[in-house]
Amino acid sequence: MDSFELNKIIGAILGTCILVLVTSFAAGALFAARMPEKPGFEIAVKETGHGGAAEAAAAPSEPIEKLLQTASAEKGAAAAKKCAACHTFEKGGPNRVGPNLYGIIGDKKGEGRGFNFSAAMKAKGGEWTYDDLNKFIDNPKGFVPGTAMGFAGIQKDSERADVIAYLRAQADSPVPLPTASK
How far apart, in whole angstroms, are the C-alpha atoms of residue 127 and residue 169? Predict the structure, then answer.
């Protein structure tokens, strides 16, 4: 092979490298990635109306005593899968974005569980009753304004009752069901 052929081969290789380099610079200038102003994703939550928190915390349409009469823990286990992104349900389970919910009914709000609750949840106080859970699962931000829980809630009464029945089953000694007289 003579030197002229060798020069053409080396020239083709160098030309290809220069073309790739120029294309890379041009693509980097045209398609520069911009960092978002605020990292993360916005989670849609139910907005409150003109009445503010008092309107948002209004009781769901059906009383929990009536809803729990037909609730199914099996259906609740399926419905609670949307909660499993942030919570665990098994005994001794780890905390995630939210606390482990094993034995939550009758437990104190915003305390224990090895979880750092929001100031709003700590300030709410009291114990988790069936009615409180029903209101909280319906509209978390309405029941505990300022809670860190970024979930819009479960609006369907029967689905909410199923989840509460499932939570009741996740306890060493389940709290007795409420009666209609309460």
Answer: 17
C-alpha–C-alpha distance, residues 151 and 54, integer Å: 19
For residue 182, the model assigns a pLDDT of 44
Of residues 85, 83, 81, the one with CA closest to residue 133: 83
CB of 104 within 8 A of CB of 133? Answer: yes
**Helical H runs in the chain?**
3-30, 52-56, 64-69, 73-79, 119-124, 130-138, 140-143, 157-169
Tokens of 160: 């909410």
Separation of CA 61 from chain center:
24
Decide if 90 contacts 169 (C-beta within 8 A): no
Which pLDDT tens digit goes with each residue over 56-100? 445 456 788 888 888 888 898 888 888 888 888 898 888 888 888
Q: For the segment 30-55, what is each residue's pLDDT rounded down to a tens digit?
A: 887 777 777 776 666 555 544 444 44
d(CA 6, CA 135): 81
